Amino acid sequence: MVQKTRKLNRDEMLKTLYEDRRSKGYKSDYEDFKSLLHYEKRLEQERVIRSSLSPSASMSDLHSKPASTPKEQRRHSTTELRETELDEDYLTYLIKKAKKSLDGPPPKRPFVPSLEQLRLSRKAEVDAIDQILRPKKPPLPPHLPPADEAYVDAILTKRGTISKSGREQVADKDIARLRPHQWLNDEIINFYGQLILSRSESQKENSKSTPAEKHINGLVNGIKGKGKAEATDKKPLDVHYFSTFFWPKLIGDGYDKGRLAKWTKKFDLFSKDVVLIPVNHNNSHWTAAAINFRKKRIQSFDSMGTARSEVHKALRKYLDDEHRNKKKKPFDFTGWVDWVDEKTPQQENGYDCGVFTCQFLQALSRGEEEDFGFTQVDMPYLRRRMLWEIANAQLRNDP
Protein backbone atom coordinates (compact mmCIF):
# COMPACT_ATOMS: atom_id res chain seq x y z
CA MET A 1 0.00 0.00 0.00
CA VAL A 2 2.83 2.38 0.89
CA GLN A 3 4.62 1.62 -2.35
CA LYS A 4 1.42 2.23 -4.32
CA THR A 5 0.91 5.59 -2.56
CA ARG A 6 4.51 6.60 -3.28
CA LYS A 7 4.06 5.68 -6.95
CA LEU A 8 0.91 7.84 -7.14
CA ASN A 9 2.73 10.74 -5.50
CA ARG A 10 5.67 10.35 -7.88
CA ASP A 11 3.35 10.23 -10.91
CA GLU A 12 1.54 13.39 -9.77
CA MET A 13 4.86 15.18 -9.26
CA LEU A 14 6.05 14.12 -12.71
CA LYS A 15 2.85 15.38 -14.31
CA THR A 16 3.21 18.70 -12.47
CA LEU A 17 6.77 19.10 -13.75
CA TYR A 18 5.71 18.10 -17.26
CA GLU A 19 2.94 20.71 -17.39
CA ASP A 20 5.30 23.35 -16.03
CA ARG A 21 7.90 22.54 -18.71
CA ARG A 22 5.24 22.58 -21.45
CA SER A 23 4.12 26.03 -20.32
CA LYS A 24 7.68 27.17 -21.04
CA GLY A 25 7.74 25.82 -24.60
CA TYR A 26 8.57 22.12 -24.21
CA LYS A 27 6.99 20.24 -27.14
CA SER A 28 7.93 16.56 -26.78
CA ASP A 29 5.68 13.89 -25.26
CA TYR A 30 5.46 12.65 -21.65
CA GLU A 31 7.70 9.59 -22.14
CA ASP A 32 10.44 11.71 -23.71
CA PHE A 33 10.12 14.16 -20.82
CA LYS A 34 10.69 11.38 -18.28
CA SER A 35 13.76 10.21 -20.20
CA LEU A 36 15.05 13.80 -20.14
CA LEU A 37 14.68 13.96 -16.34
CA HIS A 38 16.57 10.66 -15.97
CA TYR A 39 19.29 12.07 -18.19
CA GLU A 40 19.50 15.41 -16.37
CA LYS A 41 19.80 13.60 -13.03
CA ARG A 42 22.52 11.31 -14.42
CA LEU A 43 24.55 14.30 -15.60
CA GLU A 44 23.95 16.14 -12.30
CA GLN A 45 25.17 13.11 -10.35
CA GLU A 46 28.42 13.05 -12.30
CA ARG A 47 28.87 16.82 -11.88
CA VAL A 48 28.43 16.57 -8.10
CA ILE A 49 30.78 13.59 -7.86
CA ARG A 50 33.49 15.50 -9.76
CA SER A 51 32.98 18.65 -7.69
CA SER A 52 34.85 19.27 -4.43
CA LEU A 53 31.96 21.36 -3.09
CA SER A 54 29.45 19.94 -0.63
CA PRO A 55 25.94 19.61 -2.08
CA SER A 56 22.87 21.10 -0.49
CA ALA A 57 20.69 18.85 1.69
CA SER A 58 18.02 18.70 -1.00
CA MET A 59 20.52 17.28 -3.49
CA SER A 60 22.29 14.81 -1.16
CA ASP A 61 20.69 11.87 -2.93
CA LEU A 62 22.70 12.65 -6.05
CA HIS A 63 25.74 11.07 -4.33
CA SER A 64 24.11 7.66 -4.51
CA LYS A 65 25.99 6.62 -7.68
CA PRO A 66 29.79 6.21 -7.24
CA ALA A 67 32.14 7.68 -9.80
CA SER A 68 33.39 5.30 -12.45
CA THR A 69 37.09 4.54 -12.75
CA PRO A 70 39.16 5.35 -15.85
CA LYS A 71 39.31 1.60 -16.57
CA GLU A 72 35.51 1.46 -16.62
CA GLN A 73 35.45 4.35 -19.08
CA ARG A 74 37.47 2.30 -21.52
CA ARG A 75 38.42 3.69 -24.85
CA HIS A 76 35.63 6.24 -25.31
CA SER A 77 33.05 3.80 -26.65
CA THR A 78 29.57 4.87 -25.64
CA THR A 79 27.61 2.73 -23.22
CA GLU A 80 23.85 2.58 -23.05
CA LEU A 81 22.23 5.17 -20.83
CA ARG A 82 21.31 3.65 -17.49
CA GLU A 83 18.23 5.21 -15.94
CA THR A 84 18.59 6.64 -12.46
CA GLU A 85 15.62 6.52 -10.13
CA LEU A 86 13.45 9.62 -10.09
CA ASP A 87 12.74 9.45 -6.35
CA GLU A 88 10.44 11.81 -4.49
CA ASP A 89 13.33 13.82 -3.01
CA TYR A 90 14.68 14.64 -6.46
CA LEU A 91 11.22 15.46 -7.86
CA THR A 92 10.50 17.68 -4.83
CA TYR A 93 13.76 19.50 -5.51
CA LEU A 94 12.74 20.08 -9.14
CA ILE A 95 9.26 21.33 -8.17
CA LYS A 96 10.72 23.74 -5.60
CA LYS A 97 13.17 24.96 -8.23
CA ALA A 98 10.35 25.55 -10.75
CA LYS A 99 8.15 27.23 -8.12
CA LYS A 100 10.99 29.53 -7.05
CA SER A 101 11.38 30.66 -10.64
CA LEU A 102 7.60 31.14 -10.98
CA ASP A 103 7.22 33.05 -7.69
CA GLY A 104 10.17 35.33 -8.35
CA PRO A 105 9.67 39.01 -9.07
CA PRO A 106 8.63 39.79 -12.65
CA PRO A 107 11.37 41.33 -14.81
CA LYS A 108 11.47 45.08 -14.82
CA ARG A 109 10.17 46.79 -17.91
CA PRO A 110 13.14 48.23 -19.80
CA PHE A 111 13.37 51.96 -20.26
CA VAL A 112 13.04 52.57 -23.99
CA PRO A 113 13.59 56.15 -25.07
CA SER A 114 12.29 57.39 -28.38
CA LEU A 115 15.81 57.34 -29.82
CA GLU A 116 16.06 53.66 -28.95
CA GLN A 117 12.73 53.01 -30.64
CA LEU A 118 14.09 54.59 -33.79
CA ARG A 119 17.20 52.44 -33.58
CA LEU A 120 15.14 49.28 -33.16
CA SER A 121 12.92 50.27 -36.05
CA ARG A 122 16.00 50.77 -38.20
CA LYS A 123 17.35 47.39 -37.11
CA ALA A 124 14.06 45.72 -38.09
CA GLU A 125 14.36 47.23 -41.55
CA VAL A 126 17.95 45.98 -41.89
CA ASP A 127 16.91 42.50 -40.69
CA ALA A 128 14.09 42.44 -43.26
CA ILE A 129 16.53 43.33 -46.05
CA ASP A 130 18.99 40.73 -44.75
CA GLN A 131 16.23 38.12 -44.83
CA ILE A 132 15.64 38.93 -48.51
CA LEU A 133 19.34 38.84 -49.41
CA ARG A 134 20.25 35.89 -47.14
CA PRO A 135 17.03 34.03 -46.40
CA LYS A 136 16.97 31.60 -43.50
CA LYS A 137 16.79 27.92 -44.25
CA PRO A 138 13.32 26.52 -44.89
CA PRO A 139 12.09 23.98 -42.34
CA LEU A 140 13.27 20.41 -42.82
CA PRO A 141 10.79 17.94 -44.35
CA PRO A 142 9.17 15.33 -42.09
CA HIS A 143 10.22 12.42 -44.32
CA LEU A 144 12.65 11.39 -47.04
CA PRO A 145 11.25 10.90 -50.56
CA PRO A 146 9.19 7.65 -50.68
CA ALA A 147 11.84 5.70 -52.63
CA ASP A 148 14.53 6.67 -50.12
CA GLU A 149 12.29 5.78 -47.18
CA ALA A 150 11.83 2.31 -48.69
CA TYR A 151 15.60 2.05 -49.21
CA VAL A 152 16.24 2.87 -45.54
CA ASP A 153 13.74 0.22 -44.44
CA ALA A 154 15.55 -2.34 -46.59
CA ILE A 155 18.95 -1.33 -45.14
CA LEU A 156 17.68 -1.99 -41.62
CA THR A 157 16.99 -5.62 -42.55
CA LYS A 158 20.52 -6.31 -43.81
CA ARG A 159 23.16 -8.12 -41.76
CA GLY A 160 26.94 -7.85 -41.66
CA THR A 161 28.93 -4.91 -43.00
CA ILE A 162 26.61 -2.20 -44.29
CA SER A 163 28.96 0.46 -45.64
CA LYS A 164 32.59 1.59 -45.90
CA SER A 165 34.21 5.02 -46.32
CA GLY A 166 37.96 5.54 -46.07
CA ARG A 167 39.14 3.58 -43.05
CA GLU A 168 35.69 3.57 -41.45
CA GLN A 169 33.02 0.92 -41.74
CA VAL A 170 29.72 0.15 -40.03
CA ALA A 171 27.85 -3.09 -39.45
CA ASP A 172 24.17 -3.83 -38.90
CA LYS A 173 24.55 -3.58 -35.09
CA ASP A 174 25.96 -0.05 -35.54
CA ILE A 175 23.37 1.11 -38.04
CA ALA A 176 20.64 -0.05 -35.64
CA ARG A 177 21.75 2.78 -33.34
CA LEU A 178 19.99 5.17 -35.73
CA ARG A 179 16.61 3.66 -34.95
CA PRO A 180 14.45 5.82 -32.63
CA HIS A 181 15.40 6.14 -28.94
CA GLN A 182 18.96 4.80 -29.39
CA TRP A 183 22.32 6.29 -28.42
CA LEU A 184 24.91 6.68 -31.20
CA ASN A 185 28.24 4.92 -30.77
CA ASP A 186 31.79 5.77 -31.89
CA GLU A 187 31.41 3.84 -35.15
CA ILE A 188 28.42 5.85 -36.35
CA ILE A 189 29.86 9.22 -35.34
CA ASN A 190 33.28 8.47 -36.86
CA PHE A 191 31.70 7.21 -40.08
CA TYR A 192 29.66 10.41 -40.34
CA GLY A 193 32.79 12.45 -39.63
CA GLN A 194 34.55 10.59 -42.45
CA LEU A 195 31.72 11.55 -44.82
CA ILE A 196 32.17 15.21 -43.85
CA LEU A 197 35.93 14.92 -44.38
CA SER A 198 35.50 13.18 -47.76
CA ARG A 199 33.13 15.89 -48.96
CA SER A 200 35.61 18.59 -47.94
CA GLU A 201 38.45 16.87 -49.80
CA SER A 202 36.23 16.39 -52.85
CA GLN A 203 35.28 20.07 -52.86
CA LYS A 204 38.96 21.02 -52.70
CA GLU A 205 39.61 18.94 -55.80
CA ASN A 206 36.64 20.53 -57.60
CA SER A 207 37.88 24.01 -56.68
CA LYS A 208 41.01 23.34 -58.78
CA SER A 209 38.91 23.29 -61.97
CA THR A 210 39.56 25.90 -64.67
CA PRO A 211 37.19 28.91 -64.94
CA ALA A 212 35.57 27.33 -68.01
CA GLU A 213 35.01 24.04 -66.17
CA LYS A 214 33.56 25.88 -63.16
CA HIS A 215 31.17 27.74 -65.49
CA ILE A 216 29.98 24.53 -67.14
CA ASN A 217 29.68 22.74 -63.77
CA GLY A 218 27.71 25.68 -62.44
CA LEU A 219 25.24 25.47 -65.32
CA VAL A 220 24.84 21.70 -64.93
CA ASN A 221 24.43 21.93 -61.16
CA GLY A 222 21.99 24.78 -61.64
CA ILE A 223 19.78 22.57 -63.83
CA LYS A 224 20.04 19.66 -61.40
CA GLY A 225 19.51 21.86 -58.35
CA LYS A 226 16.63 23.90 -59.85
CA GLY A 227 18.32 27.26 -59.84
CA LYS A 228 20.97 26.73 -57.13
CA ALA A 229 24.00 27.26 -59.35
CA GLU A 230 25.14 30.18 -57.20
CA ALA A 231 26.04 27.68 -54.46
CA THR A 232 28.95 26.44 -56.61
CA ASP A 233 30.59 29.88 -56.37
CA LYS A 234 30.83 29.66 -52.58
CA LYS A 235 34.34 28.77 -51.48
CA PRO A 236 34.24 25.28 -49.94
CA LEU A 237 35.50 25.02 -46.36
CA ASP A 238 38.72 23.13 -45.87
CA VAL A 239 37.96 21.08 -42.76
CA HIS A 240 39.63 18.34 -40.76
CA TYR A 241 37.78 15.82 -38.60
CA PHE A 242 39.41 14.29 -35.52
CA SER A 243 37.91 10.93 -34.56
CA THR A 244 36.19 10.26 -31.25
CA PHE A 245 39.50 8.86 -29.93
CA PHE A 246 41.22 12.26 -30.10
CA TRP A 247 39.46 13.76 -27.07
CA PRO A 248 40.25 10.96 -24.55
CA LYS A 249 43.87 11.01 -25.74
CA LEU A 250 44.04 14.76 -25.23
CA ILE A 251 42.55 14.88 -21.73
CA GLY A 252 43.82 11.49 -20.59
CA ASP A 253 47.42 11.43 -21.83
CA GLY A 254 48.12 14.98 -22.98
CA TYR A 255 49.83 16.17 -26.15
CA ASP A 256 53.24 14.53 -25.67
CA LYS A 257 52.32 11.24 -23.97
CA GLY A 258 49.34 10.81 -26.27
CA ARG A 259 51.68 11.34 -29.28
CA LEU A 260 49.17 13.75 -30.80
CA ALA A 261 51.86 15.36 -32.97
CA LYS A 262 51.59 12.27 -35.22
CA TRP A 263 47.90 12.92 -35.80
CA THR A 264 48.80 15.91 -37.99
CA LYS A 265 51.99 14.57 -39.55
CA LYS A 266 50.57 14.56 -43.10
CA PHE A 267 48.90 17.99 -43.14
CA ASP A 268 49.16 21.50 -41.69
CA LEU A 269 46.46 21.94 -39.06
CA PHE A 270 46.84 25.74 -39.24
CA SER A 271 45.96 25.83 -42.93
CA LYS A 272 42.46 24.48 -42.25
CA ASP A 273 39.32 26.60 -42.04
CA VAL A 274 37.75 24.53 -39.26
CA VAL A 275 38.87 21.52 -37.19
CA LEU A 276 35.93 19.36 -36.04
CA ILE A 277 36.04 17.40 -32.79
CA PRO A 278 33.32 15.13 -31.32
CA VAL A 279 33.53 15.03 -27.53
CA ASN A 280 32.16 12.34 -25.23
CA HIS A 281 31.81 13.44 -21.61
CA ASN A 282 32.36 10.53 -19.20
CA ASN A 283 30.59 8.03 -21.47
CA SER A 284 27.38 9.93 -20.73
CA HIS A 285 26.91 12.68 -23.30
CA TRP A 286 28.07 13.67 -26.79
CA THR A 287 28.86 17.30 -27.70
CA ALA A 288 30.59 18.98 -30.64
CA ALA A 289 33.67 21.20 -30.51
CA ALA A 290 35.63 23.06 -33.16
CA ILE A 291 38.77 25.09 -33.67
CA ASN A 292 37.54 27.72 -36.11
CA PHE A 293 40.48 29.46 -37.77
CA ARG A 294 38.17 31.50 -40.01
CA LYS A 295 36.46 33.19 -37.10
CA LYS A 296 39.17 32.83 -34.44
CA ARG A 297 36.93 30.83 -32.13
CA ILE A 298 37.27 27.82 -29.88
CA GLN A 299 33.68 26.58 -30.18
CA SER A 300 31.56 24.24 -28.09
CA PHE A 301 28.01 23.15 -28.93
CA ASP A 302 26.05 21.23 -26.28
CA SER A 303 22.46 20.11 -26.85
CA MET A 304 21.95 20.04 -23.06
CA GLY A 305 22.93 23.71 -22.72
CA THR A 306 25.96 23.16 -20.46
CA ALA A 307 28.86 25.62 -20.68
CA ARG A 308 31.96 23.55 -21.41
CA SER A 309 34.89 25.61 -20.13
CA GLU A 310 37.02 22.47 -19.89
CA VAL A 311 36.65 22.00 -23.65
CA HIS A 312 37.82 25.53 -24.38
CA LYS A 313 40.74 25.20 -21.98
CA ALA A 314 41.90 21.82 -23.34
CA LEU A 315 41.68 22.90 -27.00
CA ARG A 316 43.55 26.14 -26.33
CA LYS A 317 46.39 24.16 -24.77
CA TYR A 318 46.33 21.68 -27.66
CA LEU A 319 46.49 24.52 -30.19
CA ASP A 320 49.49 26.03 -28.44
CA ASP A 321 51.28 22.66 -28.08
CA GLU A 322 50.67 21.87 -31.76
CA HIS A 323 51.99 25.27 -32.85
CA ARG A 324 55.11 24.92 -30.71
CA ASN A 325 55.71 21.46 -32.17
CA LYS A 326 55.13 22.35 -35.84
CA LYS A 327 55.99 26.07 -35.99
CA LYS A 328 58.53 26.18 -33.13
CA LYS A 329 56.87 29.11 -31.34
CA PRO A 330 53.80 29.79 -29.17
CA PHE A 331 50.43 30.24 -30.85
CA ASP A 332 49.20 33.83 -31.10
CA PHE A 333 45.73 33.93 -29.48
CA THR A 334 45.19 37.62 -30.22
CA GLY A 335 41.52 38.10 -31.17
CA TRP A 336 40.53 34.52 -30.31
CA VAL A 337 37.44 33.90 -28.17
CA ASP A 338 35.88 30.92 -26.37
CA TRP A 339 32.52 30.65 -28.12
CA VAL A 340 29.24 29.25 -26.81
CA ASP A 341 26.12 30.09 -28.84
CA GLU A 342 23.01 30.65 -26.72
CA LYS A 343 20.88 29.71 -29.75
CA THR A 344 22.31 26.18 -29.93
CA PRO A 345 19.39 23.75 -30.55
CA GLN A 346 18.49 21.75 -27.44
CA GLN A 347 17.42 18.12 -27.04
CA GLU A 348 14.24 17.21 -25.19
CA ASN A 349 15.01 13.59 -24.31
CA GLY A 350 17.80 11.39 -23.00
CA TYR A 351 19.14 9.80 -26.19
CA ASP A 352 19.46 12.25 -29.14
CA CYS A 353 22.75 13.93 -28.14
CA GLY A 354 24.75 11.96 -30.74
CA VAL A 355 22.45 13.00 -33.58
CA PHE A 356 22.65 16.63 -32.48
CA THR A 357 26.46 16.34 -32.36
CA CYS A 358 26.68 14.95 -35.90
CA GLN A 359 24.43 17.72 -37.21
CA PHE A 360 26.45 20.39 -35.38
CA LEU A 361 29.63 19.07 -37.05
CA GLN A 362 27.88 18.92 -40.43
CA ALA A 363 26.73 22.55 -40.16
CA LEU A 364 30.17 23.70 -38.98
CA SER A 365 31.79 22.04 -41.99
CA ARG A 366 29.62 24.19 -44.26
CA GLY A 367 30.09 27.42 -42.29
CA GLU A 368 26.43 27.39 -41.25
CA GLU A 369 26.77 27.45 -37.46
CA GLU A 370 24.97 30.80 -37.25
CA ASP A 371 21.75 29.13 -38.43
CA PHE A 372 21.65 25.40 -37.73
CA GLY A 373 18.18 25.01 -39.20
CA PHE A 374 17.11 22.02 -37.10
CA THR A 375 15.48 21.40 -33.71
CA GLN A 376 14.35 18.46 -31.60
CA VAL A 377 11.30 18.09 -33.87
CA ASP A 378 13.61 17.18 -36.78
CA MET A 379 15.43 14.32 -35.03
CA PRO A 380 13.28 11.44 -36.41
CA TYR A 381 13.83 12.74 -39.96
CA LEU A 382 17.55 13.32 -39.40
CA ARG A 383 18.03 9.78 -38.07
CA ARG A 384 16.47 8.39 -41.27
CA ARG A 385 18.51 10.78 -43.38
CA MET A 386 21.74 9.74 -41.66
CA LEU A 387 20.84 6.09 -42.30
CA TRP A 388 20.54 6.83 -46.02
CA GLU A 389 23.78 8.86 -46.06
CA ILE A 390 25.81 6.23 -44.22
CA ALA A 391 24.46 3.37 -46.33
CA ASN A 392 25.34 5.30 -49.50
CA ALA A 393 28.63 6.65 -48.08
CA GLN A 394 27.77 10.20 -49.14
CA LEU A 395 26.05 13.25 -47.68
CA ARG A 396 22.84 14.51 -49.24
CA ASN A 397 22.63 18.04 -50.65
CA ASP A 398 18.85 18.38 -50.49
CA PRO A 399 17.12 19.67 -47.33
TrEMBL record:
GO terms for biological process: protein desumoylation; proteolysis. Residues 51-61 have a biased composition (Low complexity). GO terms for cellular component: nucleus. Keywords: Hydrolase, Protease, Thiol protease. Residues 50-83 are annotated as: Disordered. Residues 168-364 form the Ubiquitin-like protease family profile domain. GO terms for molecular function: deSUMOylase activity. Signal peptide: none annotated. Residues 71-83 have a biased composition (Basic and acidic residues). InterPro entries: Papain-like_cys_pep_sf, Peptidase_C48_C. Belongs to the peptidase C48 family. This is Cysteine proteinase. It comes from Thelephora terrestris.
